[in-house]
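Teaching assistant here, posting this on the class forum so everyone can see the example we discussed in section. The complex has two components, and the goal was to see what a joint structure prediction looks like when all of them are supplied at once.
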Amino acid sequence: MLVQVSHITELDYSALISETVMELRMAPRQERLQHRLSFVLGIGPASQVRSYFDWLGNTVHTFAINNLHRSVKISAVSVVQTYDRDRLTQHPEDMWPLNPPTDHSLFDMLRLDAPVVDCPALTELAEKIKPRGRESLARVGLNIMDKINEEFVYEKGITSASSTIAEVLEHKRGVCQDFTHLMIGLARKLHIPARYVSGFIHAGNQQFRGAAETHAWCELYFPSIGWIGYDPTNNCEVKDNFVKMAVGRHYKDVPPHKGVYRGNATETMKVEVHTMELPEISGNLVGERTSPLNVPVFGNTGRGGVVPWILEEQVQQQQQQQQG
Amino acid sequence: MFQGYEIDGLFDEMFDKPERPRPHYSALYSRLHDLGMTSLQHRSRMADLCFRNQGITFTVYKDTLGVEKIFPFDLIPRIIPDREWTHLERGLIQRITALNLFCHDIYHQQAILREKIIDAELIYGAKMFRREMIGVNIPRDIYISICGTDLIRDVQGNYLVLEDNCRTPSGVSYVLENRAVMKRVFPALFQAARVRPIEDYPHNLLRCLKHLAPPEVEEPCIVVLTPGVFNSAYFEHSFLARQMGVELVEGRDLLVEDNYIYMRTTAGLRRVDVIYRRVDDDFLDPLCFRPDSMLGVAGLMNVYRLGHVALANSVGTGVADDKAIYPFVPDMIRFYLAEEPILQSVPTYICSRPDDRKYVLEHLDQLVVKATNEAGGYGMLMGHQAEPADREEFACKILENPRNFIAQPVVQLSQQPSLVDRALRGRRIDLRPYILFGEKITVMPGGLTRVALREGSLVVNSSQGGGSKDTWVLEPENKR
């Protein structure tokens, strides 16, 4: 499928702020079943952008703004060619239980670590899913999703971006991020390497939770063929209408934007996602480009003065260990 | 002078038998005799006054009687003959070389894990393993520019490595100040003893930092980054900055623009090339590490990754001085250098290993238990001296999080005469030499000798009531 994704993020502040430092994980990944043909990143106020691959292979763009400003706008538009799993990957033969991995980079995807925190409720739920004997790994993946959908309700406003799975297990409610963390937790409990994916769904004329917004799902590791996607929020296997931005151990590794600002102001965020299937690759498609967006700045402040006051918390942080 | 001085089966630095000083101490011994106790005490008060007047202090956290303390100074110097020192120096150079190669390997090919010389679980479970550093290339591949390695001597007098400090080792300012005071209080003795100078340390440190700067920058801008005035080692941060003639800055004095680091100055922004940072990894960059940090510079890690600024020490070196990794340093030396380790280590039980754990829990009253990621004598149990309730508490902690603990047999540290209440008494000491990894590796001759001033105590950390002494490494005999 040839998909165009436009992903617009607007951050507005209640007062002028003097500094924004940000990193983005918005560029779709280059993978076997997903090719990024075009990526145009617009940032305003204008700023110099650099990019690199992080330790998980995600493309990260970074920038800093040191002028007074009241809003930051980020527009990421990409064109991606995606492919469905082929016959080989459709029916992997891997069986549960898996042998412990020899590739130690998989250790991180087996470790229960905040927000995918180990807790008695998780153990209990994992026990219910645990196969009695040898079982097809693909089947185990589907069983985990079924169980989550049987016991949990999709509902916004109950959990927050920083919720752990302990909270989700308690409330039995959550959104895509929570469902994904939960599935990762259950898989890791069964010693299946599992990772977090952030991305988009192109719904077309079907119904999907998480379409027209940033979405999250889970991938399980199949030793014979690699990572395979499962979307516990929609209780389905991942197909070619899914576009992957970034992967990680959990949400904290992959936020589409992550920033620090300086100023006495509150932030409001608006995110818009539009996806569209394209009939063909356009002749004038650009490869990779960054461009400035017209967002106003109000003079330069980054240059002078220190903050005259010091907070109690700052005192505590300064009292960090020295190796003495 | 030495009436009632007891050796008590320990290794004594000064005496091999009662009233019989070792050859390299004989000059000091006779000078002390000539001086007499009254004069010695007078000089000791002089020394204290010097420290107080210069405001040389450190900070003890969680002490209600005020946080600023004078680091107690003991007048009797520790003397190391040239032959012993040469051996130590070779061993320390070998060790920092291996530790540095280890850091590079862990954040790149991970050969030592693939060859199964170190259990990968141990690394991936280490709190200080920084995944953000994987695949990042740093200036000249030097991770540990400044290392402070703690050495102790057992009852036979063998030097053993107790631990390495590869993150932000502190204490070097006391070494320099102790020496300055010593020269004033004992001018004649000092001259006669032919002690190797240490005063070039700030100069060597500056060269070591310059070595990390981008080669195309002719006059690199170097700064010392401190957490701030409330930090225990703030005195040292300002001391070193002043000695090197560079700016002392806090995180709020720096900012990122166009992917470079700049310092706010009264004359506008100035680009910074090298940061000698005395801020922990966790607080270094709120964007990358702890988001609530108010001490760091947001975006610093991205600039570092691009090679636009150098850091000393690098990020993630805590994986090399993790106490559960410590027992593998001899294996690292064999693996990376194909050499046998020159310095011995203390036998260590790793509590994450079931057999070791069982042994530790059964022998808590004979062992020293340490938290793997703590320093400064915090988070530690001296099993043989502890109350049963404290042992019980540690047993629970070990069971709760075994990866977090190691245990070692109690090493009876060597003792050294120290001035305590109008008499000379044997008190336990250790030694922290400072190693600089620049264009070449230099070890400061001597280092910080810390002394446990409480009778019978084996804990020398300043935060736990320790003091310090001047350390004299003697010139080789043939240079006479």
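For the discussion questions: Chain A touches chain B at residues 19, 21-23, 48, 50, 52-55, 60, 62, 64, 66, 104, 107-108, 111, 258-260, 302-307, 310-311, 313-315, 317-324 (CB under 8 Å). The domain at 87-239 of chain A is CATH 3.10.620.30 (C8orf32 fold). Think about how each of these relates to the inputs above.
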